[in-house]
Amino acid sequence: MTPTRTAALFALLGFISLNLLLFGDVLFSASGRVLSSQDADLYLHFAAWRQFGFDQLRSGHLVLWNPHYLCGNPFLGNFESALLYPPNLLFLLLPLAAALNWGIALHVVLAGFFTYLWAVHRKLRPLAAFLSGVVFMWGGAYYLHLYAGHLPNLCAMVWTPLIFLALDGWIEERKTGWVLLGMFAVSMQVLAGHPQYVYLTGIAAVFYFSLRLKGNDRPGKSFVGFSLFYMGSFFLTAIQSWTGLEALLQSARHSALDPASAGSFSFPPQNLLTLFMPEFFGQLEAGRYWSSWYFWEGSLFVGVTAFTLVIIAIVRVRERRWLLTMVLVSLILAFGAYTPIYSFFYHCLPFFDGMRGMAKAAFLASLFLSLLAGMGFDHCLTHVSGGRKRALWIAVVSLGLLILGRVTFGSAMQGAAGWWSKNFSLLPWLSNRVAEMTPDLRNGYIQDSGIQSAWSLVEAACVGLVLAGIIFMATIRQKFIYLAALLLMFESFWFAASHRPVFNLAALKNKQGRLAQFFIQHPGDVRVYGTGALSLTDNGFDIWEDEPVVPSRYAQFVCATQGIAVNKLYSTSPVFTRFGKAYGLVRLKYLFIPQGDDFKVLQMPVPPMPRMALLHHWTIEKDGPAELTTLMDDRFDPKARVVLEKDPGLPAGSVMGKEELRWFDHSTDLIEVEATTTQPSVLLVTDNYDPGWKAEALGDSSQKKYEPQPGDYFLRAVPLQAGYHHFILQYEPWSFEAGKWVSLLSCFLYVAILLAVHRRNKKSGSSINA
């Protein structure tokens, strides 16, 4: 084994050991504890999504359509289902709690290790590269998504350093192996389940590639290879990416968000202070976060030690220019609506106007900062000169922070008379929030915030003074600089351990059990509101869930009934404030009102429609808004008439007789229907319409061709002639049917090229990337 590979193996073991120290009590426990907050997305959404999707996959069924919430929507087409992401095989092999925990721990390790590999390639010494990995994997921009329970975010971000490693290797050497590595890394990021990170990484990669082209003798060939990273991934992941893109184009997310909604959750500029004071704006557990948006979206923590090393790299290391530029580019992206350039991105870049939460781009800044921190430490290993002056500056700044902390604490304790209180309410992002509080609540809030900020200043000062002492001692004996590495790791570990919540999965299962018992006691093919993702695991059906792929027609129906503009749907909370007669169309019968860990159940006064109905009267209306107006008209009777967008091609009928209608769900994606009609009819299925739903006549059916179309604007309608009908309704979008074959052929070709490159390199005695 070569020294480089030996060092990489030891680095991997180091990352594993550190994270076992951090997560070991949960990973090796059978108590059902799960890494994340009980108030966040893993508990509220992803645990149920993973349980449902992989339980179905274990039984041999890949779920394309999810009938359980939103009145039906694509499941595989929702990238966040991540059914085809290879590391998620853990959910087929382990109990749910163990799979969640080991999956999270695995990706934190990979975040550190892939950053290490990139840093080593950038000529950093192994220890410096290892520190870069520690800074990124336990940095605020990546690690805090564990608290928020953002599984796809945690999974998608880890592949970014590998993409930049492949990009550097390709630009420098132009060998096929690097292109293959780039394709693999981008493909894994796509399958991980959060396309916004793919998009943001792609933008950053274009900027990085442009910077690295300086002095390149073959820019055209370099550009072709870089393009193949993404073109190859597009074909390798076609089964997921094509299916997801079709679902996106059929969803409300395809429409542009209004600028205010799109600009929400941008990275607040004041939160740059979190680089070295992570809790200056409050704590997660205490619930006293006083900056903008969310704590985990607004943290760029790398630590006092790492931030100091970044400054050293910027001042002393010549190779820092690309990384420093990329930090600035990433921050401009992350600042989003806080910058004038955001308007250009919003109006000119495709899909950009459908995204919000540009603070996510802060993870790119964190990644480039982690490499700069490694460069700073690498410089300190070999350059002793200037150490005393450096230590003096660090000590002076630290003492300044200490004094400022003491002054802030004293002012906060003075209450309304102190300068902290007088200026706190004037902060532009706080003025409305503070004005709505009662005087007692406001005074307590302001004082607690001041005390917390003061302590953050003091903590940063103490770490800075220790670091100053270490750097000073290193001027006497250089080996003391290794204490700075230990300080960095301790600081990062302390931050990670302080923000590592757990919840007990038993609480979620108890809630699922109570809901399942309710549906057993109240049988019927009806829907409810208020159970969200839990409907996946209790065999219920809900009209809503907070997820990105809301079918466009259904979203327009919801917005029309709630008086919401469609482009503000994703920024409106709560979405539902009233339930009119029109909700009988979607079979809504019960409202679940949360009360602590339980629910209060209210019954709707409007009788719900059946799952399927044979209707003999129809109206043709090609204008969408007019259709919705008709549906909301109290005079409209959905049990007697259906609104269609095109002529069903049926003659008018008047013969009345006994009619029969039966159906059987073979899976989430396939329904068998039998009907006997005595006159031309329209079969109305009170589930969401999607072009992917096809109908196929079975051999004994009198009608040989069926064409599903929208009925009542957003539901499914199938015109039926008089006679006996026996057919299959199946969800099979063209993107999935084509994509699975494209992925299969592309993977075969990828493996063939990989083996050819490996054989060629083996003969030449070089590595696979040579």
Explain how this protein is built.
This protein is an alpha+beta fold and 770 residues long. Helix content is 52%, strand content 11%. It has 27 helices and 17 strands. The two termini are 17 Å apart. The mean pLDDT is 92.
Q: First CA to last CA: what distance?
A: 17 Å
Instruction: Tally the helices.
Output: 27
Indicate the structural class: alpha+beta
Note the overall shape. Answer: globular
Task: Please compute the radius of gyration using only Cα atoms.
Answer: 29 Å
**Residue fraction in strands:** 5-15%
Task: Look at the structure and give the mean pLDDT.
Answer: 92
Percent of residues in helices: 40-55%
Order of strands across the biggest sheet?
8-13-16-15
Poorly predicted runs = none
Largest sheet: 4 strands, antiparallel
Q: Total strand count, please?
A: 17
Question: Which features characterize this protein?
Answer:
770 residues, single chain, 52% helix, four-stranded antiparallel beta sheet, 17 strands, alpha+beta
Short description:
Helices cover 52% and strands 11% of the residues.
Topology:
Blueprint lengths: L2 H25 L5 E3 L5 H18 L6 E2 L6 E2 L15 H4 L2 H26 L4 H12 L2 H4 L1 H4 L2 H7 L2 H14 L2 H17 L2 H18 L6 H18 L1 H12 L9 H4 L41 H13 L4 H15 L6 H7 L13 H21 L4 H27 L5 H6 L6 H5 L3 H38 L5 H17 L3 E3 H17 L5 E3 L22 H11 L25 E8 L2 E6 L8 E4 L2 E3 L3 H9 L9 E3 L15 E6 L4 E8 L3 E8 L4 E5 L11 E3 L3 E6 L2 E9 L2 H31 L6
Parallel strand pairs: 5-6, 9-10
Antiparallel strand pairs: 1-4, 2-3, 6-7, 8-13, 11-12, 12-17, 13-16, 14-17, 15-16
